């Protein structure tokens, strides 16, 4: 049932909320019966985390029929959900269990698709590289409905600040991380976008692999990850009073950094040289916040700095997991280095040290050293000892900027 229009601070007007079910067209129209996917220990790790939010901004063509655009998005979402049916379901306790969860789907389950208008900001204000308030962006991303829902979508037409401004579509997508990781969620987004552009000859990606038996569950680790305390160390601060900005590096700048790291590696006899991107980000953050920790307090620059990120384990699990596996198959990487040395060393030394620490963390995760999963809690405690650790999410391999619904 559609929700009545209402106003959010005079800027965002929710016009309606539709409920989009997986398409029932095709030769296997009756195949989507009630079914459940048990959450593995790699899914359970994310049970108590905040959901993942993405926002896409698209300029609509002059004279575009907005009603038709929104209707087409809902129809193509239904077709994409045919292959990704668990996203229309919900997370619940497995029947007869008190400590095991499952991703459950039954016919009639649907994804909340909210349609709204916003007249308080335009694309130039939201998509700029310059610092802008997070609070201006968050209304464009939907909250997950109560009851264990794992996906919500919001399509907001930005009317702009000027009467003649071109209309912009803001497409917000919220996904519960316990349902799937970034590789799976962007696989879904690419499938949805290709479905929306099917008339133009776009071929959807191959369908996902839903069989969770590829992950051999581990009871000891599952119990550890499913506990609410497993989230500690990754708690996100309230971002509503914060700014977000984009920092772009040219190809020439990136190459100069790579050359500097390669030169330092050659001088030290390190072969091959470590890769650079994460190390540069980390070092820039350390230098920008020198004298202040990530919790907003002051520190004396001593102790160690920590950087937490994840790596895909699909090709690294014992018994290879398909690349199109739907679910979570990522593991943590922990990089650390002396905070003061990183902040005061020469740029070349600092970048090389940071890149080497990141490379060592990846190497440890890739080779699955003994105790890799078991040490998770103590590593988190260690990383928080000198303030909240620096962390990043996502990957260029997801090709997020290639998610094209036909708007460019």
Taking all residues together, what is the mean pLDDT? 87
- Unreliable segments (pLDDT under 50, ≥5 consecutive)? 1-9
Strand order across the largest sheet? 1-2-7-9-10-4
Which shape, going by the Cα principal axes?
Answer: globular
Number of strands: 14
What is the straight-line distance between the termini? 32 Å
Q: What is the N-to-C succession of helices and strands?
A: EEEHEHEEEHEEEHHEHHEEHHHE
Our count of helices gives 10
| Largest β sheet strand count, sense and barrel closure | 6 strands, mixed
Radius of gyration: 23 Å
- Helical fraction: 25-40%
Q: Give the DSSP E fraction (strand runs of 2 or more residues).
A: 15-25%
Class from helix and strand fractions: alpha+beta
Account of the 3D structure:
- The chain is of the alpha+beta class.
- The chain contains ten helices and 14 strands.
- It has helices spanning 41-44, 66-83, 123-126, 182-196, 219-226, 251-268, 277-288, 339-344, 347-367, 376-383; strands spanning 6-8, 12-20, 35-38, 52-59, 90-93, 101-105, 111-118, 132-133, 151-158, 168-175, 243-244, 304-312, 330-338, 390-391.
- Strands 1-2-7-9-10-4 form a six-stranded mixed β-sheet. A three-stranded antiparallel β-sheet has the order 3-6-5, with no helix packed on it. Strands 13-12-14 form a three-stranded mixed β-sheet, with helices on both faces.
- Helix 2 (66-83) crosses helix 4, helix 6 packs across helix 9 (347-367) and helix 7 crosses helix 9 (347-367).
- The chain starts with 5 loop residues before the first strand and ends in a 17-residue tail after the last strand.
- Residues 1-9 have low confidence and may be disordered.
